[in-house]
Amino acid sequence: MPRAEVTIKTRDGSCPASVFTPAIGNGPWPAVIFYMDGLGIRPVMWEMGQRLADAGYLVLQPDLYYRFGSYPPKVPSEVLSNQKSMGELMKWVGSLDRDRKVSDSGAFIEFLSSRPDVKGTRFGATGYCMGGNASLTAAGAYPDRFAAVASFHGGNLGTDKPDSPHLFVNKITGRVYVAGAIEDQSFPEEQKVRLEKALTDAGVNHVVETYEGARHGFAVPDLPVFDKSASERHWTALFKLFQETIAAA
Length: 249
Known about the structure:
249 residues, alpha/beta, Rossmann fold, eight-stranded mixed sheet, 8 strands
């Protein structure tokens, strides 16, 4: 099916989003929230959303930057090479504090819960870069609503700040999969250790690993650091996670 455009009412306004469903079949399907990376909604995010949907899921991909209004799709090579554009982008990324991520995720959960083509009451979540932080944050805030959560080259997952996602994992009941990159300033080894300890201490079923040789952004095809081998590894891990959790429910 083609991508369907929807609007989700949130505490702070109206969030445009895309809904992807499998090319074959009528549902209902287990649902996944797909949290975009820091460069925002653009064709490659839609392509990834549809690939996930075609594995048998209804995928919701919200535009987390809706508070800034509409914007043209960002071209990574142009943004990453322009200091001014990067400065603006980091302001957008920084605008998504924990309160906004939690509030928005609550609206996304309500939206999925209202759809007759969604199967079950517990969902999956996946996210990339900034979205990896958002997916783990959502699972910590709504532990009973997520059966599985993934983060790929997610940033700032185990910092010393009071809103760090690792501080809120203690009630998570679903499975967690986190894949980081080497030499990633947003998720260095000390953060990995801190997150791993928090998940272990909480008794959460989890895997936290680093993809050797892969750089921050390895899973997203339009990024300069895209790594096809690491990206396929991420898809294999993601499909396995959801197949054994939300698809099996």
